[in-house]
């Protein structure tokens, strides 16, 4: 029985939902704070077992086991040892999910924030994941070889694409010079607020040279007034008013107390001509270099992370760095590919590109 099923049948057999992990800002309102009952249950059990000699075992998603380890580390709770044993959830439970038997041992003093990962219940060989520089690392040995490339503040910032939660109204296909929205309606719009759109699947599958997708970008920065739309682009203004009920009914709290027709994931960086993008949902480190489309900057959906540049030269240099072996190996040591969104901005932002550039220069010079 899932959390959503409980809500569907009107059950009150649910824990109180709150920001119990103390996420701040947008993290508290968007995906990072998604409520997971099994994670909540495990956290309660861990708290009960603090300062006791005790054992805990539970079947759960592998990603949930890692979240528990992260929670224990963040709260500096006691943990003597931890291990996961992969199980075939599809075979035994008909569930298409990466799952494991999680085993934790507790005592009154140990703070061992690592986990031994076994490939099955019967395996005697394992590899260890654990914390380095306050990050959960998938491959500690590989990370240690490249740890000098790590930076708390790398000097660049990966951004996520536009979030609007209303694709039927805000996204279009251009067919024979007509813009057709998600409801199949052909609409007349000025191109003032229309920009070429690339979805995560387009980026992942390298469909980046052209697009027939477009998106309404109603603001240049978060919180900007949208009152001028009806003056600067009357057709667009009338269209948004006509479809206003769909936008007004968006559930996320991020739209509350913001101008009507607001979007998120937009700023000066959205309108720079050159971008390096990667889809967070796909299980490969494939970076794409994308320029303007028909003299307009490319816009991405919120499954995509990107860097933006005014200079094509700098964009191409950065693109080469990101595709170098040290960069790929550095990121690979931290990415857990079984997660729903394995590539995260928190991982991408850890790489010190300036130091990597020096490293690559010295390596090339040595080869010469």
Q: How would you sum up this structure, described in words?
A:
- By secondary structure, this protein is α+β, with helices and mostly antiparallel strands.
- The chain folds into two domains: 3-140, no CATH class; 159-310, no CATH class.
- The chain is 29% helix and 21% strand.
- The protein has 14 helices and 16 strands.
- The chain has helices at 3-8, 37-48, 62-74, 89-93, 140-146, 167-170, 200-204, 229-232, 234-242, 244-248, 312-322, 325-332, 345-348, 353-367, and strands at 54-61, 81-87, 99-106, 114-118, 126-132, 135-137, 159-160, 171-175, 178-181, 186-187, 194-198, 213-216, 274-279, 288-290, 299-300, 304-309.
- Strands 1-3-2-4-5-6 form a six-stranded mixed β-sheet, with helices on one face. A six-stranded mixed β-sheet has the order 10-9-8-12-11-15. A four-stranded antiparallel β-sheet has the order 7-16-13-14.
- A hairpin with a 7-residue loop joins strand 4 (114-118) and strand 5 (126-132).
- Helix 2 (37-48) packs across helix 3.
- The radius of gyration is 23 Å and the shape is globular.
- It starts with a helix and ends with a helix.
DSSP helix fraction: 25-40%
How many runs of DSSP E, i.e. beta strands? Answer: 16
Strand-residue fraction?
Answer: 15-25%
Q: From the alpha carbons, calculate the radius of gyration and give it in angstroms.
A: 23 Å
